Amino acid sequence: MAQTATTSVGGPALQISGLDGSMVALEAATLAQMSSRLSGRVLLPSDPGFEEAVLFWNGMIVKRPALVVQPLFAGDVSEAVRFAREHGLLLSIKGGGHGLGGTATAEGGLMLDMSRMRQVVVDPDRRLAHVQSGCRLGDVDGATQARGLATVLGSDADTGVAGLTLGGGFGWLSRRFGWAVDNLVEVEIVSASGELLRAAEDENAELFWALRGGGGNFGVVTRFTFRLHEVGPTVTGGLMMWKAADAERVLEAYRRVTETAPRELSVALSMRLAPQAARIPPALRGRPVVGILACHTGEASAASRDLAPLRQIPAAVGAVTRRSYVEQQFVLGFPQPAGFHQYWKSEFLGTLSDSFLETYRSSAAALESPLSQLVLFQLGGAVSDRLEDAVAMGNRDAHYIFLAAGTWRAEDLHAADHLRRVRSAWQALRPYSLGGNYVNAQNADDGEDRLHEAYRASFDRLARVKAAYDADNFFRVNRNISPANTRREI
Known about the structure:
Elements: E1 14-17, E2 23-26, H1 28-36, E3 41-43, H2 50-53, E4 67-70, H3 74-87, E5 91-94, E6 110-113, E7 120-123, E8 128-132, H4 137-145, E9 149-150, H5 161-166, H6 174-177, E10 184-190, E11 196-199, H7 205-211, E12 220-227, E13 229-230, E14 234-243, H8 247-260, E15 265-273, E16 288-296, H9 300-306, H10 308-311, E17 317-318, E18 321-324, H11 325-328, E19 341-349, H12 354-365, E20 373-378, E21 400-408, H13 415-429, H14 448-455, H15 459-469
Parallel strand pairs: 4-6, 5-6
Antiparallel strand pairs: 1-2, 3-4, 7-8, 8-12, 9-13, 10-11, 10-12, 14-16, 14-17, 14-18, 15-16, 15-20, 19-21, 20-21
């Protein structure tokens, strides 16, 4: 049974931000009628579960909605969209809550929290996975690996599927099978009118093209269908870490390994201060280090051969072993609870020149937050196999992505310094960029120029699809690709 909004009939009306910038007053009876039509829940700030629903991974997000709807089925989503449109309410959509830029919420608006829609149905015969949009990567990997199958998602099991996929998505399997959206075969989506649509190559084809990288501009996705591949269940993966004094040797070995790597191998490299974690030797914690995270989905003998240049450098931490693919999806980085402040910058790269590696090393040495890091993630391989405009997510020329991942605790008194150092590292390394950046790594202060850089030649086509499916920019709480439409700051 639906949970009815608890504002008493005859009490003060709920004030919700409207699409035109004004406040809309909703009477309790109106909310109760809407709630009675839902299978899911309607939450006000005074209700149990509201605070959990509005908790975001990035603690820099301080906007709070006035009302939360937690749908259980696509019909609930359609109902909520129609209600928001009828009353002119500012609507946002929260999938996993990991978005850096705060686009899952709008101050005083209505937020659709998809977290109760977490069903995964695997069709092993057709090698498909039908995934509801509230799922985390771990939900999908657990269900598909039970059949020895996997699809391309990210590299951290706690990440939300929807946001990652709609922004393009990459992970350990990208070098074998492309972007996450290259493996998307069908999408179920609620449009701006509240209609439930199917988007695929044979139906709403332009919408399907746009959804594969174009973000949340076109509707509320309720289900993704992914193509599956034989992967695992055992891979070679894990972490190796060295003191920063070894960085020059490690960086050169990383470049050599990645330039000749087979598609079964993906390697990420990070420079940071060693975290305070049990698997890190006490003498190393808080000291500058360089580390690699590797995933090899081929035979153990091939993995040993392909990783040999890195393994030949004596490491302070060496845990690249045979492990399950599901376990590998938990190995990236170290646990960072929701609420830490996150400020990231990204650029796609073609090669790792000597001058880039030197600048990368010196920029990493300037970081002072014990949680911040500069990351290189290997791409190429199958990413480059398709045409640049095959889907909205382009950047097919990228062989690496650089991430300046700034992280610090909310109470850190040096937050301004940490942010400045992240931006400084990004500015120093930006000249080596191919010109593109990853839309999922954009912050709230990234402007339209960064959006154009992310989509490049696809931007105008995305704007045309936006005009066809959401002409009045109802879905505007996102990295918005409709500059011709009025868009107020939220």
